[in-house]
Design goal:
With 581 residues, this protein is mainly beta. The chain is 7% helix and 43% strand. Strands 12, 13, 14, 15, 17, 19, 20 and 22 form an eight-stranded mixed β-sheet that branches. A hairpin with a 2-residue loop joins strand 14 and strand 15. The radius of gyration is 26 Å and the shape is elongated.
């Protein structure tokens, strides 16, 4: 019986692979998600069924429909309200991936939307023009909800972009392409946490085809997969031009024939079809050319540390079609040239760096005696896994920082950080490829490799609500390869506390020690130091202190953040707010 089930599974996988490569199967018109514009958006999260395979309705999730989500289109500086109405029978969230918003509006696991309720964040659009996206980000549920269909584009325009004369007729010469691989069980239902993701959909369409005009066309590429990376190129190997990375436009178009996009990443490309009227060309993924170690490449791991059934997945290391484009007549007002310049790119200055941090990706031993698989995990960051009640990093407002990401595993991890955009400054000790020299919020860290990026944490602070950072392989994220960071204002309340206190702390902020002075009056004192969550750091008693004495409290081993020093004497209690830089 087991053997029969295995044979059935392999037969089904072979059928799905043939359908994704276009061999012997009818093509399907590419679905173009509808658009929503304005400043108030009603997003109804709902369940339904979708005919992903003939004669077999598949249970799916969607927004304002049974599968996928509409494309939201806004302008920079719009003030928007997004009413997320959860009509599922389970809780979900909605994260605005890549957007610079306050933590309470970010839509991470701390902003859960219970079944039957509505979440209505309102915020100003502060990002420059670019292609962003939105998807659920619930604790341990991201892969399930995204895999079942909850993913949509979030397009921002601004005056600088509009002045360039780029293609922008949605669905005609400005085409959204949400590329996702999915796994299915023997009943052709979407499977979760399954490396056998042998069906590839573009905008929810299997074996898609679409008509394009013979002119310059803009393709907005999103890798919305749970695990798989794609190595984009065209079947005729023609040159295309990358004009935007995750966070917006680059300075000059990058001429390419291949473009690697990992889960969570976006890229905009221009392709000149002016001389191709009457022809057809396929957008493809050339996984056979992808470097080993990336999920979807010819090989991941080595020796005993390999992924189970990896080589049984027909897509791994294979080249396959994504969309067939048929080229027809031009539109009435065609774009026929590729601009030579786009918008100025001014990265953060390394000379301004305040803090350096290091995050290490490694396996985690959950059960004593177990030996984790360095290709399959389980994985953690800095030897820990996600905990809803913990803050892993405290970041001062306006801090310019370099983060070093070290990957000690045998699989590439796409690292995503919420709230901010960053500049990649180094990959494995060398200058990053031109395709990653722009504004980014996801970066792929290769096995046994390292990445450095520089960023600045601006605008928003919160003493309680954190942002997230995590691997965007959704199975890894759900298993705990995620952390949280709190952005705080290091000067909030300091003057008010010290001006009304008979005690003073200096230097404050400090990265070495605080010195406490005041009117001790030969009295007995006790001091208690706590962090922002109320956890006690130290508790000391003092006797017969003279007025000119200073008490030193080392903070060199503490995390950056806000701390509170409570001083108790027979004359009363006073509190100082201390900041560890």
């Amino acid at each position: 019986m087991v053997r029969n089930k295995l044979d059935l599974l392999k037969t089904m996988l072979a059928v799905i692979v043939l359908s994704t490569t276009g061999i012997g199967f009818a093509q399907n018109a590419l679905y173009i998600p509808p658009t929503l514009s304005g400043t108030t958006f009603n997003l109804i999260v709902q369940s339904g069924t979708t005919q992903l395979y003939p004669g077999n309705p598949t249970p799916t999730y969607g927004i304002n429909g049974s599968f996928l989500s509409p494309t939201i289109i806004v302008n920079k500086n719009d003030i928007v309200t997004l009413n997320v109405i959860n009509n599922l029978t389970v809780a979900t969230t909605m994260h605005w991936h890549g957007l610079h918003v306050a933590p309470e509006n970010d839509g991470g696991p701390h902003q859960s939307i219970s079944a039957g309720s509505t979440w209505s964040p309102s915020f100003e659009i502060l990002n420059n023009a670019g292609t962003f996206w939105y998807h659920p980000h619930g604790e341990g549920k991201t892969e399930l909800h995204v895999g079942k269909g909850l993913a949509g584009l979030f397009i921002i325009h601004d005056p600088a972009e509009l002045a360039l004369g780029l293609p922008q007729i949605y669905g005609v010469d400005d085409i959204p392409l949400i590329v996702q691989s999915k796994a299915f069980d023997v009943l052709q239902q979407i499977a979760i946490a399954d490396h056998m993701d042998t069906a590839v959909f573009v905008n929810g369409t299997l074996n898609a085809t679409h008509n394009l005009p013979s002119q310059v066309v803009r393709l907005r590429l999103l890798n919305g997969s749970s695990m798989r990376s794609f190595y984009f190129g065209f079947s005729n190997n023609m040159t295309f031009y990358q004009i935007a990375t995750d966070g917006g436009l680059v300075e000059t178009p990058n001429a390419l024939t291949r473009l690697l996009i990992a889960p969570g990443e976006r890229s905009e490309i221009l392709v000149d079809l002016s001389s191709m009227n009457g022809q057809s060309v396929n957008l493809m993924s050339y996984a056979s050319e992808m470097p080993d170690g990336i999920f979807g490449s010819p090989s991941v791991g080595s020796g005993a540390d390999t992924m189970d059934m990896y080589m049984d997945n027909f897509l791994n290391g294979a080249d396959f079609n994504l969309v067939e484009f048929t080229i027809g007549a031009q539109t009435g007002s065609p774009i026929t040239t590729i601009p030579s310049t786009l918008v100025p790119y001014v990265p953060f200055n390394i000379a301004d760096v305040d803090v350096n941090r290091t995050l290490v990706f490694d396996t985690i031993t959950l059960v004593p005696g177990d030996t984790p698989n360095r290709a399959e995990g389980p994985f953690g960051i800095n030897n820990t896994t996600f905990n809803m009640d913990s803050i892993n990093i405290h970041v001062p407002l306006n801090s310019t920082e370099i983060w070093t990401l070290k990957n000690n595993t045998l699989i590439a991890h796409p690292f995503h950080i919420h709230d901010i955009q960053f500049n990649v400054i180094e990959k494995n000790g060398t200058t990053p490829p031109v395709t990653e020299q722009g504004w980014k919020d996801v970066v792929l860290v290769m096995p046994e490799d390292s990445v450095k990026f520089i960023t600045k944490f601006t605008t928003f602070t919160d003493e309680m609500v954190p942002y997230m950072y995590h691997c965007h392989l959704l199975h890894h994220e759900d298993d705990g390869m995620m952390g949280s960071f709190l952005v705080y204002d290091p000067f909030a309340g300091i003057n008010e506390v010290t001006e009304t206190s008979t005690f003073v702390a200096f230097p404050n902020p400090s990265s070495d020690e605080w010195n406490i002075t005041g009117k001790w009056d030969n009295s007995d004192f006790s001091m208690e130091l706590t962090d922002a969550q109320g956890k006690r750091i130290l508790n000391r008693d003092y006797s017969n202190l003279s007025s000119d004495e200073s008490i030193s409290i080392s903070n060199s081993t503490l995390h950056s953040g806000v701390y509170f020093l409570t001083i108790i004497s027979e004359k009363g209690t006073q509190q100082l707010q201390l900041v560890r830089k």
